[in-house]
Amino acid sequence: MCNFETKIRILDLKPVTITSDFGTRDFYAAVVTGRLLSLQPALNIVTVTHQIRQYDVFQASVVVRNTFGSFPEGSVHLVLVNGSSAIQNRQLALRYKNHYFVGPDNGLYGLVFDENPDEIIELNSVEIEHDTFPELDICTHAAVHLAEGKNISELGDKTTELVSSMPFKPTSDNNTIKGMVIYIDNYHNAITNITRRMFDKLNKSGKFTIRFGKYFTQKISPTYNYAPEAELVAVFGSTGLLEIALYQASARELLGIRVSDVVRIDFE
Amino acid sequence: MCNFETKIRILDLKPVTITSDFGTRDFYAAVVTGRLLSLQPALNIVTVTHQIRQYDVFQASVVVRNTFGSFPEGSVHLVLVNGSSAIQNRQLALRYKNHYFVGPDNGLYGLVFDENPDEIIELNSVEIEHDTFPELDICTHAAVHLAEGKNISELGDKTTELVSSMPFKPTSDNNTIKGMVIYIDNYHNAITNITRRMFDKLNKSGKFTIRFGKYFTQKISPTYNYAPEAELVAVFGSTGLLEIALYQASARELLGIRVSDVVRIDFE
Amino acid sequence: MCNFETKIRILDLKPVTITSDFGTRDFYAAVVTGRLLSLQPALNIVTVTHQIRQYDVFQASVVVRNTFGSFPEGSVHLVLVNGSSAIQNRQLALRYKNHYFVGPDNGLYGLVFDENPDEIIELNSVEIEHDTFPELDICTHAAVHLAEGKNISELGDKTTELVSSMPFKPTSDNNTIKGMVIYIDNYHNAITNITRRMFDKLNKSGKFTIRFGKYFTQKISPTYNYAPEAELVAVFGSTGLLEIALYQASARELLGIRVSDVVRIDFE
């Protein structure tokens, strides 16, 4: 019976997600996966994406921010993207809203979290075997530890230090919001950093103009397909953020949209 | 003991496959995966591909048609590709040959099924939280319901309506078949819509000429490698469909092959 | 109770990894996955990559060589890449360092293994249904057999024949090593075929010059980030191989690095 209990207990493992800039052609993603399975053969590993642009912590933050909450509470999110300035290679485990995050201290977390994390641990319980790839030894161990439901505080020393990042927040006064495009998705939708809450706060009259380059619209559509004749469609998407789509625009115009392009809303 | 039984029962879950046009860089695929695991942590989720061209229901149909039968009976196939005209966003669950299909009513199923499905249910048992992404709420719930072996009829109302699609079927008379390329694979093999059955029916003399652009051949090869000197190789592939490969052709010629290019067979 | 034991035993299945040149848009990878799950629904299937260049056995060998050891002992590695000359389509299962390898006899294994494998079996226990895709029938069956812990010798006849490949080994004399770039990763790091052991053997004085094109360095850095001002950084990476990175180089120069470019080390 005892043997049965042991084996059945592993069904309670939490999933481990991986977000990285490893790409999908190389062997790094598989090496990390293999190491995780060597530590815990029953682990459920979910690839979020390995196609973050190299060293692009900002892009990673948009992906992680919009992903983690859909996973079960207690899930572990490995985020293995090195900022180009992450010289000291400090590796962290963090707890935030009943999710765990493991990876280098690369400035990501200031962009992902709206509030301070509940706990930050600087990982130091494992020897590094590979100086060039410390995440392989340290972060896989921490991820399995947390997925098994063990205590985060056993992984190292508590800290409050975190490489800070300034999230690009929209600026606003009484009747204007100026935000920007933070992500362009596979369908050429431009996701901005303007939240529904910011918008609702200033939208007292129900009259407003959203401007993006030479385009504008005066309404929020319920879905992307709502106004196929219009050129600019503004939607609050599943991310809770204002998204901009250009219908009937030429491919050249669509491809001309860039992260950091300005979106402006004037309320009457 | 009762507790044991509960946990062991989940090993009987059927796999859920996902075919989508989400791409592999964004967070949509991971959000769907996370939602599925939140509903059923032990679910086995298999990515078929997230790289269907945006809104390309036809390409999705070729992939799904040639994939689903290799999975165990009872598997659930989430196909999350919106046709550009799918304005009304009707979400369906279908049963066909002991497999389940879940996704928007986008015209896919007329291209995937040779016969009418055994059951069509219009999904209405779940509230939509995200107007811009109704599949996230509705289809994940239905997929988990079916993977758990629960009854499809509990998911909504029976219907017989289905957005119709005309599968591009070859035309033939007594001694000619005119078909077309429906898919070009990673190896530059051109898969046509000509089935082995159509071919066998007209191939009484064993003498025929297969023409593709300026190329032709007068035999079917058993494998791609059989006739490396010939320029045009014709094979009945693992799909059961006539496939055309050009050996020794220049890259320019290979890349010039397009979906909808005509393939013609004249029998003597 | 007996029923319990049966179900619990499948938790002891070993993982099956897949490395292929199927690409990620087509249905071949999913068809193989579906077939594996049809044979063994509880199988844990890990995608290493499906993005090996078509027929590129050499690239596959670099990926497999650097991946397999990170997985648990007993893992099964399906390597489904056909060399363009693999006309006879001989399918093998091999045992090497307590790992199993299954796939066509395409010259890969001479590049992956440093010593002779412990066992080579020519697979012949399954009927081929698809002449154009024999791996689908034969290799999936063998992979599941091995993942279930069954004996490799039941899969066919022992053999010692193996398509031979000359691994490109560095040449060296008393004070020079001439190696070459064998892989360029997602970060533009150039991985060479020079091992740390070769290097240590000749590095008696601690004085050496590593040359790569017009660049050179006279030290080995502990990590990629160690010497950000230098143009050429030389590192022994997690692969155990000498890796070359160019910092501050233009994109044009980075993109000019090619597999088979020469790296030379002169010791004093």
Automatic annotation (TrEMBL), chains A, B, C:
InterPro entries: SAM_HAT_C (IPR046470), SAM_HAT_N (IPR046469), SAM_OH_AdoTrfase (IPR002747), SAM_OH_AdoTrfase_C_sf (IPR023227), SAM_OH_AdoTrfase_N_sf (IPR023228)
Protein name (database record): Adenosyl-chloride synthase
Stated family: Belongs to the SAM hydrolase / SAM-dependent halogenase family.
S-adenosyl-l-methionine hydroxide adenosyltransferase N-terminal domain segment(s): 16-156
Record domain S-adenosyl-l-methionine hydroxide adenosyltransferase C-terminal: where: 179-264
Alphabetized UniProt keyword annotations: S-adenosyl-L-methionine
One Pfam family recorded for the sequence: SAM_HAT_N
